[in-house]
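Protocol step 4 of 6: structure prediction from sequence.
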Amino acid sequence: MKSEEPVSILAVDDNPAKLLALTAVLAELNENVVTASSGREALRFLLQQEFAVVLLDVHMPTMDGFETAALIRQRKSSEHTPSSFARQRRSGPRPNPSSSVPGSSNA
């Protein structure tokens, strides 16, 4: 049996506890998990390497998950990289669903 090389998964969340939990869950897949604590940090990682999927928190300060995904789509090398959004129920305004990015999913 030929072993496949692990893929890279980018997990983006401003909450360190949520990033740790997500990393623990993804560790079972034996893939390369890279974490970023902001949209800007995620974009820097995307300049350095390719990712099989990007997991984004919807609610982040400065640049939310939707804005980050839109910027990821603007780069030719990552325009087809799948992204998935995670959100935590919070009080206050909800993100505008019409701003979601085609080809992504809300989880």
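Step 5 (inspection) to follow. The helical segments are 16-27, 39-48, 65-74.
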